[in-house]
Write a structure and sequence with these properties.
Layout lengths: L40 H17 L11 H10 L5 E2 L6 E4 L15 E5 L8 E5 L5 E4 L16 E7 L10 E7 L18 H8 L3 E6 L2 E6 L4 E4 L3 E4 L5 E3 L8 E8 L4 E4 L3 E3 L6 E3 L2 E14 L2 E2 L4 E2 L6 E6 L4 E3 L3 E5 L6 E5 L5 E11 L7 E6 L8 E2 L11 E9 L5 E11 L5 E3 L10 E6 L4
Parallel strand pairs: 1-3, 2-4, 5-7
Antiparallel strand pairs: 3-6, 4-5, 6-7, 8-9, 9-12, 10-11, 13-14, 13-17, 15-16, 16-17, 17-18, 17-19, 20-30, 21-29, 22-28, 23-28, 24-27, 24-29, 24-30, 25-28, 26-27
């Protein structure tokens, strides 16, 4: 491509004449007296400069011996999209095109690249050339949440109208912005990207509810996020989230929930499984995430029986008999001592292992006292272990019994040691202040993730 350069050229481009009536070239027709179209210099100059300017705009130098410069220029210019300057504010973005868009040209499929001046902090809009602002959505076709448009990054926006999105009204889809968070739809296939919400849901919330210093504390555990189906992701602070006991009803089970505001709340309202995510939430309110439960021993006191729905370490509880207890004869399934009760909280149908061992002493020979275990009363469970028939009075007989209990309702329970004295004699379950030489109750509940 080259610009005309023979000896008859003008040194400067002649000024164009006034606009006439647009038309088309003709060869003329002598038979009808129609003249052929005159091709004036100003038209040739216009065509030449349009082509020459396209070549030089691509950074090329006009070359008289090259005949593919326009093709090369088009390819180069296609790689150099126009980047507009953001002239709006955070969350309300505007820009001005060199040829302003109007309602007839700002249509679906039109793209804009905008150099972002201010990082967005939430839902955002875009308004080019003074047109009505429309919301910006991510690739997941949801409004922006914050941090997707980074100051200094270039945002690629495409106008779209999708019947199922924004009530069928126009949106700008954010395809990309360097350094900004990328929104994606929920992955449904093995090679799809997943959202942070899906990742947290699959792994369980990265938190653990504990009893500490008289309070309940939701701490970070192998991460820092929890996902609430009805409101989104909550970051757990490094120091945890604390819930002090206040305004409680004594002897009451409380369900503990994490709110969208990043606070804990205690409620007697139970939990249910969110139908869309499979996550446990408050019944009737999926903006509150179920994180555990605790029992109130007083109006301003937690019992310290805290269980965490996420990453619960389980529990191993031991209660010793510190003084001997005598059970008189002809009784089956009597509680040896209420001091041996072990209180605990169990989730629905959670398996519980209870174990008791120690020493019992009948006061007569040839009788068979035995021990058992009861939950929430004196109904004996089917246990492993039992009693031994002595051949002399006042022998020291060791005992051990255990039971694997399932089917407990969710909430507060206790396990206790039961004594069986099937005759007219008495039996002493030995207790004292020395470890290893006294009867005791134990309860074990496994960990959960």
């Amino acid at each position: 491509m080259y610009q005309i350069d023979n000896s008859t050229v003008a040194a400067t481009q002649p000024a164009p004449t006034g606009a006439g009536t647009s038309g088309f070239f003709t060869d003329g027709n002598p038979a009808t007296g129609t003249p052929a179209t005159v091709v004036p210099a100003e038209w040739l100059n216009a065509v030449m400069m349009e082509l020459a300017n396209a070549v030089t705009a691509a950074g090329l130098t006009l070359n008289k011996a090259s005949f593919n410069q326009l093709t090369t220029a088009i390819k180069l210019l296609a790689k150099q999209p126009t980047i507009l300057a953001d002239s709006g504010a955070a969350n309300a973005y505007t820009a001005v095109n060199s040829t302003p868009l109007v309602s007839g040209t700002w249509v679906d499929g039109v793209s804009q690249r905008v150099k972002i001046a201010n990082t967005n902090t939430g839902a955002s809009t875009y308004s080019p050339d003074g047109l009505a602002a429309i919301p910006i959505y991510g690739l997941g076709l949801q409004p922006l949440q914050g941090g997707e448009l980074l100051a200094g990054g270039t945002a690629a926006l495409v106008r779209a109208t999708i019947a199922s999105v924004n009530s069928g009204n126009p949106i700008c889809v954010l395809v990309d912005c360097q350094g900004g968070a990328q929104q994606v739809p929920n992955g449904t296939q093995s090679q799809h990207a997943g959202t942070l919400a899906q990742t947290i849901s699959a792994a369980g919330a990265a938190c653990r509810l504990v009893y500490s210093g008289g309070n309940l504390v939701l701490n970070r555990y192998r991460g820092l996020y929890a996902y609430i189906p009805g409101s989104g992701i909550v970051a757990i602070p490094s120091g945890g989230i604390t819930l002090a006991p206040s305004g409680l009803t004594a002897s009451t089970l409380y369900y503990i929930y994490l709110t969208a505001a990043g606070a804990l709340m205690a409620s007697t309202t139970g939990h249910t499984t969110d139908s869309n995510t499979g996550i446990e939430v408050m019944s009737g309110d999926n903006t509150k995430l179920f994180v555990g439960m605790e029992y109130a021993s007083g109006t301003t006191t937690w019992a310290g029986l805290c269980r965490s729905w996420f990453n619960d370490p389980g529990m191993f509880l031991v209660t010793p008999l510190t003084s001997s207890t005598v059970v008189n004869g002809n009784v089956i399934g009597v509680e040896v001592s209420s001091a041996l009760r072990i209180a605990f909280l169990a989730f629905q149908n959670e398996p519980v292992f209870a174990y008791a061992d120690g020493t019992l002493v009948p006061n007569v020979a040839n009788q068979t006292p035995s021990s058992g275990i009861g939950f929430d009363g004196t109904t004996p469970e089917e246990t492993i272990g039992g009693g031994t028939q002595p051949y002399q009075a006042n022998p020291n007989l060791s005992f051990n019994v255990s039971v694997h209990k399932t089917g407990l309702s969710e909430g507060y329970h206790y396990a206790t040691l039961l004594g069986n004295v099937p005759g007219s004699f008495s039996c002493t379950w030995v207790g004292n202040g020395t470890k290893g030489n006294r009867s005791s109750m134990k309860v074990f509940i496994g960990s959960r993730k």
